[in-house]
Design brief:
- It comes from Solibacter usitatus (strain Ellin6076).
- With 207 residues, this protein is of the alpha/beta class.
- The protein has 2 domains: 123 residues, Rossmann fold; 67 residues, DNA polymerase, domain 1, CATH 1.10.150.
- It has 10 helices and 5 strands.
- A 5-stranded parallel beta sheet has the order 3-2-1-4-5, sandwiched between helices.
- The longest helix has 13 residues.
Length: 207
Amino acid sequence: MSDPQAIFFDFDGVLLDTEPVHWACWADRLATLDVTLTWEYYRDCCIGIDDRVMLRNIACEAKPARDWETLWALYPAKKKLFQVRMTTPPFEAALVDLLPELRRTHRLAVVSSSSCSEIEPLLISAGIRGHFETIVGGDDVQRHKPAPDPYLLAAERLGVSHALVLEDSEAGLASGRAAGFEVLRVGHPSEVVGLLRRRLSGSGTSA
């Protein structure tokens, strides 16, 4: 396998284990409208997709059905709650230490379905924002994961054609593959350093 020009990281579940916090914040806000969001539903149906798509699905499946825009109106409050609960983001120390090394040899980017306004403050607070040349968030594209658009936009911004994608969700894995890039499946952020070292040494396996 040839060495990639760039490494694209999904954010939630790859760089940082944020999904339980996202779920808890959405569950808290949706409960104000008597809409229940269980962890099992969120885990199986919501991870990796844009929040607007998630809320459309929840609105359709709610009993009685809801207007999804009413649910979307909760987003500012959910975002604020998320920021409060993630004041000290627990990035994996080994990953933080690896980023400067990776940056010397590869172009780095974050490609996520979350908004840049949620991602960037966490990267800044951890002192690692400068390692990533660009962040592609859910607000940057019309078609979200599993469409290839987020990863294609990252490649366009960096001017690269060969990238390695790290993803944890089925939607994200499909997005990276559809963009024509090599994809590594991540089970937890603690796996990222090992996966990258094995792949870049030539012994890794794509998802």
